[in-house]
Amino acid sequence: MATERPKRGVPEGLWIRCTNCKTTVYKKEVVARHHVCPDCDHHFTMPAKDRVAQLLDEGTFEEWDTDLRPCDPLYFVDRLPYHQRLADEQKKTGMPDAAVTGKGFIRGRPVVLGITDFAFMAGSMGSVVGEKLTRAAERATELKLPLIFVSGSGGGARMQEGILSLMQMAKISAALGRYDSAGGLYVCILTNPTMGGVAASWALQGDITLAEPGAMVGFAGRRVITNTVRVELPENFQTSEFLLKHGFVDRIVHRKDLRTEVARIVDYCQIR
């Protein structure tokens, strides 16, 4: 008598649904394509560690300021106490906060790199994120190296830290101003999404501003603007394509081409 074998289900996490074309795609293929949909070319959000591996030469990244940890100066509580939210995010992502900074090489060119990761509280900018990006700009000034920031900050300035978060906009901008006065090359790469106080400060201050295809970039969201000013907005409003047309970004670059494009920019500006 044949024994009945238990049904084997599909393991979780093998497939994901593209938020753009709604196609179910094999996750490993998406990751292998630098988190880009194989069907419609949609650029998913990308973890900071994968972004480092994609942009920098293998084994060259020296991470800075790994000891910086956020705190809860205002004892802020919304659905959860802020300190609990931070602990949950750190456990989920394995990161102390939303920013990763350090020094590495892009096709043999030394650069300073800073990245905000959407996975940690939507990449929002609190005191630690601001401090790490400021220090990166200051060290790029000291080392006379090109500075590359990759923005994926859909959360903008972090409301749980109040004015301490908002002041990071001015602090990073001041550091970038000093870097510019010293003759440095600042390249900012806008990814989906880049919003709020981040878009209003360091994300749109680059000497060269690149953007990934289809990235949402702006200050307030589309619904907020529509409900405030009561006007019909263009269909592609706040996309990188819209910003390119209106002069806010210099070039739209597919993720697979970013390393080559940044290296070309560094060479063109004769900064090594």
Descriptive notes:
Keywords: ATP-binding, Cytoplasm, Fatty acid biosynthesis, Fatty acid metabolism, Ligase, Lipid biosynthesis, Lipid metabolism, Metal-binding, Nucleotide-binding, Transferase, Zinc, Zinc-finger. Belongs to the AccD/PCCB family. α4 (127-143) packs parallel to α5. The chain has 2 domains: 13-44, no CATH class; 45-268, 2-enoyl-CoA Hydratase, Chain A, domain 1, CATH 3.90.226.10. α6 (196-199) links the parallel β7 (186-190) and β8 (208-211). The N and C termini lie far apart (75 Å). The strands form 2 sheets. A 7-stranded mixed sheet has the order 3-4-5-6-7-8-9, with helices on both faces. It is α/β, with parallel strands linked by helices. 33% of the residues lie in helices and 15% in strands.
Kindly summarize this structure in a few lines.
InterPro entries: AcCoA_carboxyl_beta (IPR034733), Acetyl_CoA_COase_Trfase_b_su (IPR000438), ClpP/crotonase-like_dom_sf (IPR029045), COA_CT_N (IPR011762), Znf-ACC (IPR041010). The chain is 33% helix and 15% strand. The protein is of the alpha/beta class and 272 residues long.
